[in-house]
Amino acid sequence: MQQKDREFYYSVDVDCFGRLRNVVWVHSHSKVAYVICLDTTYLVNRYNMPFVGVNQHRQSILLGCALMSSEDITSYKIVLSTWLRGLNNVHLLAIMTDQCDSIKAAINAMMPNTVHRYCIWHMLAKLRTKLSRVLDGKIAKAEFKALVFDNINVVEFERRWTDYIKKYNLEERDWFYKLYLEKEKWVPVYLNDHFWDGMLSTQRSEGMHAFFDGFITRQSTLKLFVQQYELAIRAKFEKELEAEYRSRCFEPKCLSEFVWEEKFQTCYTREVFEFFQVQLRKLYHCEISTPEDHQAIAGVENYIILDYSFRRFNTRDPFVFTVEYTPIGEYLSCSCKWFETRGILCCHILKALSHRRINNVNERYILRRWRKDVVHPHLKRFFLGGYSRMTSEYMMYRELLKHFERVCDIALDTEVMRRYIKYHLNRLEHDLLNWDDDQMIIPDWEFEDTHDGEGEGEGDEVHKQLVEVELEVIGGVEVVGRCVGRGGGRGHGRGCGRGGGRGGGNTGLAEGIEQDDGTIPPQSSLPDLNDEANWEIEDLTV
C-alpha cells in the first residue's frame, strides 16, 4: 500500500514477546477529511474499528483501520496517537463513536480539542427497553424522539426534558440521568454549531460494514484480510472515480431561474448539487414574514420563516425559524443551523434570498470540500498501478507524475539536489503560470524514457556527449551549475534549464539566470545558445 500511496501511514504494536498486538493504518485522503466516524462493532473479536469519513460526492470512504487485541483505554490511546502521527499531529475537528467509556477517556487524553459525539442510534435502540414499564410506551418513545430532534434552541430542550421526565416519572431511572449528564455529546441542539454532514449516528460505518461483507468474513485469516482489504479499497475508489467522472461530464439541470442556483451548479459536485436542490424544492413550502423589529440590531435584517415541509410532533403547526441577513459583508445565518452542520444553504435562507431578490451568494457559503474543481490527489495516487477505464487525460497525468516522482527519489539523496530541484520547480511553476505560446520555446523532440529497464543505445551515448552538468557547493550554501554544450550529431539537447535541440550542442533556451533584483529576465535578454560564445554559462546561483 505504501508503494502505491506515498502518504500511506501505518504502525505496528507488539508485546514484550514480539507478538502482534495492535495495527493501525491511515490512508492519504484522511488528511483532507474533517469529520471522522469511528465504529468498534465491525467483526467484533476479530477485526475492529474502521475510520469512516465523507468525500466530496457525499460517499462514505474508509480513512483507515485498526486491528486491536483488546478494547481498553491503553489500546485506544495507541490507536489515536498513531492516527495523529499519520496526520502530522493535526487534530480532528469532530469524531463520532459509540457510547464507550474507554473511547471517551482516550479521546479526552489524545484529542482534547476535538468535538466528540455519541452515536444517537444506539441510545434510541435501548429506549424501548428503558421505557418497558412506562404506561403508553409507544407514545413515550415517540415523544422522546420529538424531544431530541424538534428543538430549536437549548432553552426549549431543557424545558421539554424536565416536563418529559416528570410526565413519565423517570426521576429515579439512572439511564436517563446519565443521558442528561452527557447531553452535550448526543443531543443535536448542543452540537449544531459543528460540521457533521448530517450524521447523527454511525450509519456511515454500518454502510461500510455492508460493503466489506463482500470481501471479508469472520473466518478470514490475517493474510487473507490484508489481500481482500486492498481489493475492497480499490473497488471503493473506483466508485469514487466514477462519481468524479459523472460530476464533471453530466451536469444536472437547474430547477429555477435563480442566478445563485446556476452558480451552485457550476461549483458543486453532481451529488451535492442534487442534495442542494432538495432544499430548493422546500423553498416553495416556506412562508416569510418581516417582524416589526426586524432590524433590532443595526445593519442586521431578521426574517421569520414558517416551514410547512415538516410538522411538529402530534400537531399541524409548522416549524418557525429565524434568518439573519447582514448586507455589509453578505452574511447569512439561520436558527436551523443547516449550513453549519451540513455545509449547504437551507431552504429558509434560500427563501430570504428570493424575498430580497439577491442574485449572488458569497463564496464562503460554497465549501471547498463540496466543489468539483478541487483536485483530490488520493484518487490518482491509488490508481498509479493502472485503471482499466482510465481516461487519456489521466494517462498523461500519470506519465508526468512518474517522471516527477523519479526525480524526487533521486533528489532525496543530498541537500544540494533537493535545493536544486526546489529552485527549478519554482521557476518551472512561474513559466507555466505565465505561459505564452508566442514566446516560449518548445522542444521539437519527444522525450524517450530510458529508465524503465531498457538498455542504452547509440542515441543515449550521443546524449551523454551533448550536455554535461556539474554541481558544486560554494561555502556549503550556494550551488553553481555549469552547462557546457558539446559534440555534434542528432541527440537530445538537455541543459540546466528548459529547451532542447538537434545537433551542434544546441540546448535551446538556457535557464537559471537571474537579474540583479532576483527576478526572471525576459527571454529576449537571455543568451543565444546557438552562438558558440554563449556555450559556457557559469555561476548559475541556486
TrEMBL record:
Region (Disordered): 489-533
Domain (SWIM-type) ranges: 321-357
Locations listed in the record: Nucleus
A GO-annotated cellular component: nucleus
Molecular-function annotations in GO: zinc ion binding
Gene Ontology biological-process annotations: regulation of DNA-templated transcription
Entry annotated with the keyword Metal-binding: yes
Annotated family: Belongs to the FHY3/FAR1 family.
Record function comment: Putative transcription activator involved in regulating light control of development.
Name of protein: Protein FAR1-RELATED SEQUENCE
Organism of provenance: Nicotiana sylvestris
